[in-house]
Amino acid sequence: MKHDHIVRRILIFAFGLLVISLSIGFITKASLGTPPISSIPYSLSLIFPSLTLGNFTIVYSLLLVFLQLVILGKQADKINLVLQVIISFVFGYFIDFGLMILGDFAPELYWERLVCVLIGCLGLAFGVYLQIVADFTMVPGDGFAYALSVRIKRKPYKVIRVCSDVSMIVIAAAIGFVAMGNTGGVREGTVICALLIGTIAGVYFNKLSWLTRRLVPDADEIAQRTGTSRAEGSDAGN
């Protein structure tokens, strides 16, 4: 994490997290599944409706932070993990806030739902772009994949990230089948998100270099060093 322009970086990161959360809510309202990072919390929220998607997102994110500590052991960056704990709560509250704003919004026609998923992908990818530009810390989903890539040194981050996302989707679908007899939070929208968000985030980096330079003076260097590779394998947020 860079220490220069720290306040600006925190604000950019927080705004990116808000954009990601609102986009997840928008995609969820389309009822075609959720992004991979939200698939497990969403399946659980369908099974236990007394708790919100945001509540389960917090619990799940904290679990991912704990798993990073287990995987990395003494190599773990304790400050970064503490930041991720804070982010876990903010992320969950932002998601519930987004769902509250959307209220009873529920597109009925299938093509309208697909459009909502695509718009949500554009927003989610922009949130990912902002977070990488900020170079402040990682959301727990990214941090977990990164921890695995550190431990499994023979595989690049992008490969590990894809494997992590696929595992989340499989687990979410399994939870849905066992508890409800369906795929729960996993549908075609989940697949669309997994395929598009990283690519769209990469396009943002290529086409919005002018914005990148305005947001953080040395962000071009950050994007070249870490941004593109993380964006290519990232879903969200998160």
Secondary structure: elements and pairs:
Layout lengths: L5 H24 L6 H12 L5 H20 L5 H25 L7 H25 L5 H12 L5 H24 L7 H20 L1 H7 L3 H15 L5
Helix pairs in contact: 1-4, 1-5, 2-3, 2-7, 3-4, 3-6, 5-8, 5-10, 6-7, 7-10, 8-10
The secondary-structure element order is HHHHHHHHHH
CA distance, first residue to last residue? 17 Å
Number of helices: 10
Q: Characterize the main sheet.
A: none
Count of distinct strands:
0
Query: How does the helix and strand content classify structurally?
Result: mainly alpha
Concise overview:
With about 240 residues, the chain is mostly helical. It is built from ten helices and no strands.
Structure description:
This protein is mainly α. Helices cover 77% and strands 0% of the residues. The two termini are 17 Å apart.
Task: Name some characteristics of this structure.
0% strand, mainly alpha, globular, 10 helices, 238 residues
